[in-house]
Amino acid sequence: MGVEGIGARVARKEDKRFLTGKGRYTDDMSVPGMKYAVFVRSPHAHAKILKVDGSAAIGMPGVIGVLDGKQLLADGIGNLICGWMIHSKDGSPMKMGAWRPLAHETVRYVGDAVAIVVADSVAEARDAAEAVVVEYQELPVVIDASKALEAGQPQLHPEAPNNLIFDWQIGDETATDKAIAAAAHVTEITIHNNRLSPNPMEPRAALGIYDAGDEHYTCYTTSQNPHVARLVMSAFYNVAPENKLRVIAPDVGGGFGSKIYIYPEEIVCLWASKRTGVPVKWTSDRTEAFLTDAHGRDHVSKVKMAFDASNRIIGLKVDTIANLGAYMSLFSSAVPTYLYATLLSGQYDIPAIHANVRTVYTNTAPVDAYRGAGRPEATYLLERTMETAARELGVSPAELRRVNFIRSFPHQTPVIMNYDAGDYDASLEAAMKAADWNGFAGRKTEAAGRGMKRGIGMSCYIEACGIAPSAAVGSLGAGVGLWESAEVRVNAVGTIEVLTGSHSHGQGHETTFAQLVADRFGVPLDSVNIVHGDTDKVQMGMGTYGSRSGAVGMSAVVKALDKVEAKAKKIAAHLMEADESDIVIENGELKVAGTDKAVPWFQMALAAYTAHNLPAGMEPGLKEGAFYDPANFTFPAGCYICEVEVDPETGRTKIVQFVAADDFGNIINPMIVEGQVHGGIAQGIGQALLEGVHYDASGQLLTASYMDYAMPRADDLPSFQVSTSNTPCPNNPLGIKGCGEAGAIGSPPALINAITDAIGNNALTMPATPQKVWAAAHAAK
Prior knowledge:
Strand content: 15-25%
Helix content: 25-40%
Number of strands: 28
Radius of gyration: 27 Å
Number of helices: 20
Distance between the termini: 57 Å
Largest sheet: 7 strands, mixed
């Protein structure tokens, strides 16, 4: 390990501009003639649109244009789509209802966009938007996913009778039922996974620019995958030909999955720019974000876990209803299916698993991936069930997990996944030691003396990252491949540019990707520049989500580095009249092993471009590209232990310690990994204790501001104890597994298990607010 290479705790290069206010976000972008947009949104959760009248608005000061859904339709702009096809168990395709970028016939949730107003200023656009008259005929509303399936409930889309999108299954139902029937003990539990709002620091924004001279479009947007945005807007939404559309995602202030998708606003701003003849910028306010950003989670599941007389799990049966909201978002169908049910084996050797998943339309905001995307839902279900089973069986929750761990790899689960490597005992032991698990009884007694209820809970999670390979996900319904691309350019003076199809929105790519290069060639970190987020600069790539940037994005960079290294060694060998096989690269020099002959890196690079003395037949320059398609998912895993004190008089929960022991494989930058884990745990604690999206019976969002939607604050969080072990991933060149989502996956069940242990009542749902905890604690008396 060098001071700046792989394994070094290097401070993030990009933080200087972020901490000094020099970041460049979409809302910072300004172009000549730019105007501002405000959307007219439905105040009703379900209604027919009878009339949209913008005549009063169009004459107001500063107004450039008022455009509606009928005009958008007339111009041939297409529907938003879901990009992952799921078939029901009867073989029928999922029922995808029409989602118009601007609704022109029916609105289906509060916030559904109906019209756009473009004006000289945001204030003028907002005033004019209030003057647009929309006549609605209100329709009945259904909010609850379980009720939406009942006969006689309001129907959202004619394509989906009884609001059912698909009824999907995985695993062997017959074998699972047989195992349950023969079990010595069966634990049954209903699991609720609460709906969340993603709340990235930077709200969504879009700037659409149409150049009539070149018939060319440019879109600045807060996207996690700009190339996919360009592909979808050109191929499916008919906004512009792909070669006439440039998508730029500059600095992006957090995403957590919510900025993977293409939303109506990007489409409409580009279309409105052409219609009005001016660049059009829209920036969401926080209420709009609560209303329209894709929400996460929202599952209700019934679980049966069967054990034999030795407390080994012999069967697991799960029935899940997943609320997808009013429309199918871009990857929404994959979240409760292949990103959820395929992880229901967890870290355990379960011979028979069956899961049935029904997805449902309701009059709520669309639901899609949110940090972890299916993996947190699977882990929460499994780990709450394991903890409940341990209590019912009267055994240690640690020992129940230990006796069921998978120990032989590779391991084929009954639900598709083939785990490649892991050591779950190591994470469990590390977490229990750090948490002083065996000393808990004494701490519980001491807390009781102060009138406090103390509890401890654990969670053993596994996740699947770097979704792959492309052929496999294609066979499962994915509309795109999930490879990644990279290009490495060595300039004439030896500085290096890495162009990656991955995208950073807080993960520190400009540092960790540069560390790969510095480690390989021994060049200073500051001489390496990472370029991403611009479809005109960077070759086609698939973006960042699902903890794929290390395992997939960096692997593509490694492949390109291999090619650069091979050519650099040929040039150096030629310059020093040595054998290519004797060339080694150390400390920024290409050396002949065992001699004092050396060529500085910059001199080799200059030779590549002057081309005065290259090997015969070699092309000038030093630039190489690569695509990397993973052979398998990666499988990070770990054990989290949470210890809490509950005040029985108020129901307030205090987290007194939180331990995270993770296995991420090889690590590029430990400090950045720790930061990712801290952030993930904070989000998981937010879900478990504080956060929850709530609608009333009429479909009005009750949590549309931070006055009503509780986010974790510093005093809600303890100091985390984090550690890592390492079983390298055997399926990528770096041995990386991924770390970005682990904290959000493992923490909610550990915390809820701890609270229920403290209060002696297992009937507790997230978020475990003081009111809920107080009621559950007193119900247990």
